[in-house]
Amino acid sequence: MVANLITSAIELAKNFDDNMTAIFPGWNVWKLYATDPLPFSLLDLGLSDERRVRIFVEDWVRTKSDAKVADPLALKGSMVQVIAGVQGLVAVQRREDVDGPLLTIKAPVKEWYVRFFNRAGDANTLLETGIPFPQASVPWPHSPSIVLDRVYLPTKTSQITLGGPPPTIAGSTGAAIASTVDEVIVTPAGKTVLPIVGAAVVLGALYFAAKSESRRRK
Question: Which residues does residue 35 pair with via DSSP β-bridges, in sequence order?
């Protein structure tokens, strides 16, 4: 299975521009390096390093491609999830293959694994083919303090790249709310947390349910 994934990654990589990052339909998984801690910024006052990394990823993809990754009603970065690792996935693009000087950031650094869902394109068809094809591409993500290191090949054999999109605030349903309660993300620090959007949806549902019950009792 791993050999097949490596072969698929090699064949797919032949079609890529080394200076552009592939964005697949459905789940995308990246590894990034960020200065640890991230430098102070007035614009990011009060934000954790994790939130700043998630915002960086979401903004880069949203502003530089037609991929659909953000929820306009949610907090910035909410659609990007920090995950513990990339077990079973194979890198299809690498930072050292980008043309020109190697993109670097100031040490010390911390590695971050993230995933985000691109609603553009057909993720189901993508996974059934076995060899995914990008829906969009963006210039290689980098800043003075954050840089993309690896892009991983989505596969139907990995729980990381399986499943539907995370719920949006406008499009959430009862089923989405229920599934969100069971979904947790393990951060690099080892903490298990409920995704921000999921928590907001659940709390909102509980509020309206309580309000409705209160009206019935009057």
Answer: 109
The Cα 160–Cα 194 span in angstroms is 16
How does 33-69 read in b/e, with b if 16+ C-beta sit within 10 Å?
bbbeebeeeeeeeebebbbbbbbbbbbbbbebbebbb
Q: What is the dihedral of CA 130, 134, 139, 141, to 10 degrees?
A: -50
- Residue 170: the pLDDT is 83
**HEC letters along 159-209:** CCCCCCCCCCCCCCCHHHHHHHHHCCEECCCCCEECCHHHHHHHHHHHHHH
Going by C-alpha positions, the residue among 182, 195, 157, 212 that lies closest to residue 8 is 157
Q: Quick one: tokens of 176? A: 């989405």
Reply yes or no on whether the pLDDT at 218 is more than 80.
Answer: no
- Fill in the DSSP letter of residue 11: H
Reported pTM: 0.73
**pLDDT value, residue 182:** 34
Residue numbers of the domain that contains 93: 2-217
In the block, tokens 């530089």 appear at 64
